[in-house]
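Q: Structure tokens for this one, please.
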Amino acid sequence: MRRNFYELATAGPAPIASEALKHIAAFYAIEKEIRGRSAEERRLVRQQKSRPLADAFDVWLRGKLALISQKIKLAEATRCALSR
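A: Here is the predicted structure, written as tokens:
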């Protein structure tokens, strides 16, 4: 999922792809924080911290998808992210 947005952001000005990468970076930060903890601890932290981020990211993605042409690579990357 990240790769699609990364490729778009590095190819040229792509504010939506860049913003998506910021959202994804927040998930990576949480995963870094919980690395090495027990499975139960990781699950609890993910429910507390990652779930609200995922819900907000979903709403954001759906909003952006409604604004862009469905034939461009950004729409494809967005649909891919929504399917995850």
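A few notes: The radius of gyration is 14 Å. The helical segments are 2-11, 15-34, 39-67, 73-83.
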